[in-house]
Amino acid sequence: MTSKFTKQLCLIFLVSLFLSCKTEKNYSTENPNIIIIYTDDLGYGDVSAYNKGTLNTPNIDKLANEGIRFNNGYASSATCSPSRYALLTGTYPWRKTGLKIITGGSLVIDTTEMTIPKILKTKGYHTGIVGKWHLGLGSGDGFDGTGVINYNSNISPGPNQVGFDYSHIMADTQDRVPTVYIENGDVVNLDPSDPIEVNFFHQEKHNDYGLPTGLKNPELTTMKWHHGHNGSIVNGVPRIGYMKGGEKARWSDIDMADHFLEKAQEYINKNKDKPFFLFYTLQQPHVPRTPHPRFEGTSGMGPRGDVIVEADWCIGELYKTLESEGILDNTLIIFSSDNGPVLNDGYYDDAVEKLGDHTPSGGLRGGKYSLFEAGTRVPFITYWRGKIKPGISNEIISQIDLFNSISKIVGIEYKSKDGIDFSDLIINNKGQGREELILEASTRTAYRKGDWVMIPPYRGPSISKNVNIELGNSIDFKLYNLKEDPSQKSDLSKKEPEKLKEMIASFVKIRGRAFSNIENLVLE
Description:
Blueprint: H1 3-25, E1 33-39, H2 58-66, E2 68-74, H3 80-89, H4 116-121, E3 126-132, E4 166-170, E5 181-183, E6 186-187, E7 197-199, E8 233-234, E9 237-238, E10 242-244, H5 256-271, E11 276-281, H6 303-324, E12 331-337, E13 380-383, E14 391-398, H7 402-409, H8 423-428, E15 436-441, E16 444-449, E17 452-455, E18 463-464, E19 469-470, E20 478-481, H9 497-511
Parallel strand pairs: 1-11, 1-12, 2-14, 3-4, 3-11
Antiparallel strand pairs: 2-13, 4-5, 5-6, 7-10, 8-9, 12-13, 15-16, 16-17, 17-20, 18-19
């Protein structure tokens, strides 16, 4: 064999090797459709594939059992608005000063910020959101309802101004006014002769608001309020805030799941011939829990269990749509929840009384609003038929990382401020996850590094009386080893002082100047 021929064979081999490597990194010959299914207040133990509770969720289980089930998947926050901000921007929510749960506030994502839909649009994707938004609308002074939103004309900025080509949403949550759907900035079915007016101040200061309220007219409610939800009554449900007008535009609560499912299916059918990104944000199992009558009693756990069964059914129907349209094999599905579980969150609905042996937190400590694990560790599943092999991952991953990971999957090198590219972990279940992560709850933050979690001292009640959840507040530092103590029963801060100091130093390095004096709080 001649030297020249040998060199040619070597060259051919190297080119072939290069091409094979390149093909291996490309997850599809065409960019995959991407769907993020985002539930609301669904706990780590609410998905039966995690084997922590007694509810049955067969359709979510199908994604988990045929995809990758992450046992250490995190929302960025123990409340909804901050988590949604972090997922879409890849930025820790505590970097946005004052960001908490929004009630009628202005848009919290700056229209100049990069978002997942924006980066996907650069690759030719059509982008849509269907369901709960809860990131504010319009421009105003704050996140607390002080800004005035005119619902009687096109509302901007909103989802369409931060990257979504199509949006069909409710503004905040099902328990807040206005109780209307908004499509591409316009209230659906609004009668101009019956304009909408909304405020979130005390009704005594706004006597011109005509709708009865849960506070003054409890006899008109079909759902009894427990705390906070005593404003305008719509469809028998007292809400947060006050509203009048817009009668023809008001939604039907029991039909909401079907409505959002239908809009998601319509979006898929319309955009099936090109790559699309759909952010399908379900309202379940957030309060008020209003299952359609065909789901009432199906869980044996009251309305909370019933709406989880309903949500699982919706996910199964969405799956069937992808399959019938012939696009399931080129669709990456990511499933998660915006924060951990809560039972009584404003209404008497038997969520506590009918819980039985079910454990929404999956044995983790805390829940929604909490710095303990159940506040932010949530179901986290990735599924792509024919591409992702069934598996389980114990690596740490956060919803903040979806920005960079999705970017890499579609061949973009744009990086967010706080995210990490875990595309290989998401698709191939390969590689290491996060070494460290900041956890957040109502602007309070804690720190996980490896198997260790440190919670700094915070003033305030240790348990929320309204929702009966441990918040993580204490006058002392708390330190836990999750490998040995996943339920966080044993505080090791006194037994492991060096580990505590190490965790505090690493925490301060990320959190910066605001926590520069925290070391002084360590007891000698």
